[in-house]
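Why do we bother with holo predictions? Because pocket geometry can differ from the apo form. Keep that in mind while you read this record for pyridoxal-5'-phosphate.
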Amino acid sequence: MQNAAVPSLLPVYKRIDLAFERGEGVWLVATDGRRFLDFGSGIAVNGLGHAHPHLVATLQAQAAKLWHVSNLYRIPELERLADRLVGASFAETVFLCNSGAEAMEACIKVARRYHFANGRPERNRIVTFEGAFHGRTMATISAAGAQRLTEGFAPLLHGFDNVPFGDLDAVKAVLGDQTAAIMLEPIQGEGGIRPAPEAFLHSLRGLCDEHGLLLVYDEVQCGIGRTGRLFGYEALGAPTPDIMGIAKGLGGGFPVGACLMTGRAASGMSQGTHGSTFGGNPLASAVAGAVLDVLLAPGFLDEVMDRGDHLGAGLEALAARHPGVVEQVRGRGLIRGLKVHPSNAEVAAKAREHGLLTVAAADNVVRLLPPLTISRDEIDQGLEMLDRVCAEMAA
Ligand code: PLP
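The structure, written out:
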């Protein structure tokens, strides 16, 4: 029933008054015909751009064959996807789900269950970090801990010790007999494109090994090729985790997520301990497989690395030309952030006026997350638009 006082769509998003009709590679075409260079990629999702021919063909072929059967049966597309994720990563086993938050929920459950199965059920606390974002479920907002996420949703899930990002002494101070795991984004995304220092990540690995804890990475935003390596932690020179959540770019726009883990970390996850109706269905698995076809093709990630270096150099030059607007360039590869002096929302709005889509993040950062398929020429077009934006903002 329509109610004039309540919009039919729950107003939990502050939406920009702009709608798109179609996408072509790195370009989005609005319903009014304007063309935008997409440096947002649906918040790091459309890694292969829009309407990538291989993804379209795979989706269409699978859609005509079989969408969903449930996890009551074997799913060959899912088994192939699992084999490929295992073959391309530290993981020995994977669980498929539908979103980043679900992937991180699975990570939390796997970590707790590991200690339960090893006779230490009291080990259920997880160290997490300020500025983190792991999703919008009760467990993932409790893990991140920020008031803007948790206010009004009490009681939160117990068992998270939230400490400053990068602060090793603070981590050591909260470790105790009840600690189960340490969980972090190797590059904080929503928090403002903040890479964890390499030495910090090595120290966390050392602490986990020393105390029998599990190291959990959230690669929902920084993973799947964005850094020029398949996973962000690899680009940072960091050690492997025991458990890792991925999503976003894995489906290239189709909802799919996954929890990757070692066999040891998975030791508590016996039959019946976790599940998902939709997770890993034939349609999602086929599309994620098609994303991997492109990403893992010889040379593709090297190209991303090259594009990322090109973007990074261009952004450093931009910052040098406009020190009154750009305070700092952050990130790696094609996951970049500009910490700006004016409000990031104003910079993003001005960029839109110039035909460039970006995404705001915390810490007054403007995120630049172009499709991994972007060309050098298209990066230059984006840099030129940013140059005009900065010149106008400075004036
Ligand atoms: N983890 C990280 C690092 C993210 O950036 C996000 C989403 O932005 C999530 C988890 C949650 O993913 P989803 O929105 O698919 O639930």
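The chain has 13 helices and 17 strands.
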